[in-house]
Amino acid sequence: MLMPLKQKEKMARRSARVHRQSLVEAGQLPIEQLVAFAIREGRRPRPIYTAHKWFARRLGSVFRSLLIGVASKPGADFDELYYGGADLTGLKVLDPFVGGGTSVFEASRLGATAYGCDVDPVACAVSRMELGAADLPDLGPTLVELKSKVGSRLAEFHVRDDDLVLHHFWVQVVECAGCGSHFDAHPNHVLADDGTTRHAFCSACATIHELPARTASFECSSCGHHTDCDRGPVLRGRAECPHCKHGDQLIEYGRRNGPPRWRLFAVETIARGAGARVVPMSERTFRKATDEDVRQYDRAKAALAEAELAGEVLIPGDEIDTSGWSDERLSAYGYCRWRDLFNARQLLHLGLLAKEISLLPPPLRSAVAMAFSDHLTTNCMMASYAGGWRRLTPLFSLRAFRHIQRPVELNPWIERAGRGTFPNAIRKLNAAAAYARSPKEPIGTKAFVDVPTRAHRRKNLIHMGTAGNLAFLASGSIDIVMTDPPYFDNIAYSELARFFGPWLKCLEVLDTREQKDILANSLVANRSRAGSVERYTEGLGQAFEEIARVLKRNGIVAFSYRHTDAPAWQALAEAIARTDLRITSVLPMPGEAGSGLHAQGERGLWDAVFILRHGVGPTPVLQVSEQEVTKVEAEVAAWLDRYGELALPFNAIDAAALRRAALVGKALALRRKQGCSEWIALESALR
């Protein structure tokens, strides 16, 4: 006799529990398989995580695997669980540093009730969007409406003769501090080089020439001037005047003169056309900017002024205050208000669009506002052009407010080409919703299979606040803590997320808490600032104390951590030592997919994953024995041997980090052998 569905669900809820030993602690997680998952995810990211930018996301496949691993008994069939058999219904999962929401979304997919906490309101908004994505309506009709109201008004400002402009190319103009002359701050004179053709422009008259790939120099057919393609007045941020040879850093011009001045010097066009056919590269044309292109921009600037007077636009006026930041370059380059990061034509588009979005009903407004927010990274004057790929590179492709002396402006409503248009932002959100309703997982080398989701009828919660105060949760109420805490003095993501804040605040998506409070409660150790390391250690310690408080006695904690420097690992150990939490397992885990700008060069791509459980009290002394140090060296050597030749290789940098992680694991182990003759202070062993 078949069991009724409700009875099956009740049985599943009774069986979902944390066991005395987990599959992870037994060393039975198939790491090689997870590496294959990571590489696949890098090539084809889960759509739910591409709907809005967040920084240094951990891989969804890794979080899914860890959740299954800590909730399953040794000997369990990992493949059967991964591809749909796992059911965490009835368990409560917490991420106190929720960031971009990967952990809570994956937990919810598996049936758990998910709780997330973050001090940053943008992180909370992104996580809420992901958890609610399955309930989003089709946004196609809304896009059509917004295009008719906003896109049609922008169309006249993105044309060139009978063609559409896809990209407008700008360059910073600087006034020499030596002779007072003005010059363009070009890093080179190449717009694109795809390995077959090089598109370069004359350094005197800006006429664009189509040359064989990698051509070093040319004589201009228009003015006869000789141009070195790969050399410009600016090298590594230092501008040298072509007239008097006076040199100065571009950042110094910002400190003296305020926001950069820009000059339009080129455009890339495509033919007008109907239908959805993607425009091939061969039908895209670079052209020198003309006086009419400049007048067109001036008309957009005048239209912005009129729209602001008429109250037709919604543009935040918030000032940029980088005091206390770990990176103060925004202010140093002369940017005073967040609107300074956009030109007038971009502000006209964004302001009109934000105004229309603000008039949408609340559930729809919040969803479209998140697509709009992500769209900001491709429609600002910190977007650059990847000449080898002939596409726009968004802000935060590198995790910094990187000054771009030759930014590219996108036609934000174009349909058949262009990376980062608003229609594409809406489509990404629709794709995220479709994935949330019917997720897939990789299988084999190319295929993906549907995997059932158990995320329904659960009241997940994202709370804005510090991990050091989880008062919204009762003591002993959480089964699993799955998180990715801030990594010591790595990038302060709350500083970067402030780029989105003013716009989302205007659209009533964010908590209105003061940004200074957010930065004050963010955990980052800036070793150049007195007391910063101590503040980081104290804040992380408070977070672990709260984790220990809300965790059930039989609960389990899993978190990832990565750093190259010994003080970061000492700080982590001291933070955990003040609690009764003990480390039962340390293992290497792929932390990134090995792709993208941040994966270039020799660097570590593996995380250390720690598994913790309740012990009997704080650890008064952090130390390791000589035997434990020897054992750690052997473990790391085994990892190098086992994982060193994988497609995502475990390298010497990873080995150095995991050695320190394993030492922390020994110093905070749940059960330790007594009677060791020689003990070493952990701080010394970590060096």
How large a portion of the residues is in β-strands, by DSSP E? 15-25%
Distance between the termini: 64 Å
Share of residues in helices: 25-40%
Tell me the number of helical segments per DSSP (H or I, 4 or more residues long). Answer: 21
Average per-residue pLDDT, rounded, comes to: 91
| Spatial strand arrangement across the major sheet | 21-2-1-22-23-25-24
Backbone structural class: alpha+beta
> Stretches where pLDDT falls below 50 for ≥5 residues?
596-601
Please provide the count of β strands.
Answer: 27
Shape: globular
Radius of gyration: 27 Å
| Major sheet size, sense and barrel closure | 7 strands, mixed
What order do the helices and strands come in, and which of them pair?
Layout: H1 5-15, H2 31-43, H3 60-70, H4 78-85, E1 92-95, H5 102-109, E2 113-118, H6 121-131, H7 140-154, E3 159-160, E4 163-175, E5 182-184, E6 190-193, E7 197-201, E8 208-212, E9 217-219, E10 226-228, E11 234-235, E12 238-240, E13 247-249, H8 250-257, E14 261-271, E15 285-288, H9 291-310, H10 329-332, H11 344-358, H12 362-375, E16 384-386, E17 391-393, E18 408-410, H13 422-437, E19 440-443, E20 447-450, E21 461-464, E22 478-483, H14 493-497, H15 501-506, H16 515-521, H17 532-550, E23 551-561, H18 566-577, E24 581-590, E25 606-614, E26 623-625, H19 626-643, H20 652-667, E27 679-681, H21 682-685
Helix pairs in contact: 2-3, 3-5, 7-11, 9-11, 11-12, 12-13, 17-18, 18-20, 19-20
